[in-house]
Amino acid sequence: AEQGYSFTTTAEREIVQDIKAKHCRVALDFSKEEKSLKEAKYELPDGQVISLRSAQVRCAESMFQPSLMGVERYGVHQALNRSVQTCDRDLRSTLYNNIVLSGGSCSFPGLEKRLSKEMKSLAPHASIKVECTESPKYAAWMGASILSSLPQFRHMVISKDQYDEVGPTLVHMKCF
Predict the structure, then answer these.
(1) What SS3 state is found at 50?
(2) 53: burial class by Cβ within 10 Å (0-12, 13-18, 19+)?
């Protein structure tokens, strides 16, 4: 909407997904790259052509600087670092060295390099390794499929009746 475009319907959101897939990426140095971007054009289904400049990197940058979207939250790198820091000291190096990303945002070119760079600045003495899964959009589904096929899974399942009877503590009793 920065340039006056508003995409609100389901069909329009599909157009946004297509624009993201074809034109957006993660900048290694946002402030530098935002200023030097070449204009990209995208033709909408109605034939109107829109131009994209800073949106090519601003879209993904909101993962690192949520304030660009008016949201007061930690960036993905800060949240990840805080999460690792809450773990046992002996596990931290293993965690830093095994960062695996999944989900649709993995399709942004440059995400692995940028996250690695940001993590190295937050944890300069750690060995950092960041990877995206092979099928990032479906990784959660594949993991759930594997988990549900394990014999132990039957013992982890909580029925609605059980939950209603015992409450949220049942989750901790069965799963942790």
Answers:
(1) strand
(2) middle
Task: Name the residue with higher pLDDT: 139 or 76.
Answer: 76
- The per-residue pLDDT for range 99-130, each reduced to its tens digit, is 998 887 888 999 999 999 999 999 999 999 99
Mean pLDDT, residues 154-165 taken together: 89
Q: How far apart are CA 2 and CA 55, in angstroms?
A: 8
Going by their DSSP bridges, the two strands 49-52 and 99-101 should be labelled as unpaired
Tell me what pLDDT residue 125 has. Answer: 94
DSSP codes of every residue in 118-156: HHHHHSTTS---EEE-SSTTTHHHHHHHHHHHSTTHHHH
DSSP bridge pairs for 40:
52
Alpha helices by DSSP H, listed for 64-132, are: 76-85, 89-96, 111-122
**Separation of alpha carbons 64 and 59, rounded Å:** 10
Burial, 28: exposed, middle or buried (Cβ in 10 Å; 0-12, 13-18, 19+)?
A: middle
Distance, in Å, from the CA atom of 142 to the CA atom of 136, rounded to the nearest integer, reads 10
